[in-house]
């Protein structure tokens, strides 16, 4: 099944939900960071490479609904000689809750990725990552894409734990704190 390019967001979500091309790659981690502090850091997309090792660089200074998100990934393994550029449209943005983007790539790959946050109370937040893809372009390279999604998930959760360490040491998550050494 292919997602028609002129379909609505609701239709694209429905088609992806029904797809059996792959199961979602999802994970969460609980961190001792208040949700407002974590979100304020997280919403600065160009800071992501400072704490999330799957990102090489991110162009966007901020997350903005309906804006194109432009970035480059690190390779899945350090010895692979590539940096993978990516661009997507931010289709959902709920401050302190989630950001979702869609990627439509040729030939026939459609993917959605969501980072989400949940306030656990007492200064703790659950940080999560969810991603699913479908289509003939995805199926042709499914082993690579599944490994890539697992890499992004693993490094994103580890990055949130790194932020917890920074927050524990400096009691803040701003640009200077992210550059400080322990």
Kindly report the spatial arrangement of strands forming the biggest sheet: 1-7-6-5-4-3-2
Order of helices and strands: HEHHEEEEEEHHH
The number of distinct helices, counting runs of at least 4 residues, comes to 6
CA-based gyration radius: 16 Å
Termini separation (Å)?
A: 50 Å
Structural class, by secondary structure, is alpha+beta
Strand content: 25-35%
Overall morphology: globular
Taking pLDDT < 50 over at least 5 consecutive residues as the criterion, the unreliable ranges are none
Main sheet makeup: 7 strands, antiparallel
Mean pLDDT across residues: 93
- Work out the number of β strands: 7
Roughly what percent helix? 25-40%
Identify the quaternary structure here.
Answer: single chain
Characteristics of this structure?
182 residues, alpha+beta
Mind explaining what this structure looks like?
This protein has 182 residues and is α+β, with helices and mostly antiparallel strands. The chain is 34% helix and 33% strand. The chain has six helices and seven strands; from the N terminus they run αβααββββββααα. The chain has helices spanning 9-18, 35-42, 48-51, 136-140, 142-170, 175-179; strands at residues 25-31, 55-58, 68-73, 84-94, 98-105, 109-121, 124-134. It has a seven-stranded antiparallel beta sheet with strand order 1-7-6-5-4-3-2, with helices on both faces. Strand 6 and strand 7 form a beta hairpin. The longest helix is centred in the last third of the chain and has 29 residues, at 142-170. It is globular.
């Amino acid at each position: 099944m292919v997602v028609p390019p002129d379909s609505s967001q609701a239709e694209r979500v429905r088609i992806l939900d029904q797809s059996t091309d792959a199961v979602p790659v999802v994970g969460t981690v609980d961190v001792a960071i208040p949700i407002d502090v974590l979100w304020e850091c997280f919403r600065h997309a160009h800071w992501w490479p400072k704490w999330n090792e799957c990102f090489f660089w991110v162009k966007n200074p901020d997350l903005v609904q309906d804006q194109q998100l432009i970035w480059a990934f690190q390779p899945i393994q350090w010895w692979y000689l590539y940096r993978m550029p990516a661009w997507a449209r931010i289709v959902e943005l709920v401050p302190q809750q989630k950001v979702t983007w869609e990627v439509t790539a040729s030939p026939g790959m459609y993917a959605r990725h969501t980072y989400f946050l949940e306030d656990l109370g007492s200064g703790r937040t659950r940080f999560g990552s969810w991603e699913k893809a479908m289509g003939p372009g995805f199926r042709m390279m499914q082993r690579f894409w599944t490994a890539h999604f697992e890499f992004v998930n693993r490094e994103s959760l580890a990055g949130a734990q790194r932020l917890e360490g920074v927050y524990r040491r400096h009691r803040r998550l701003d640009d200077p704190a992210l550059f400080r050494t322990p």
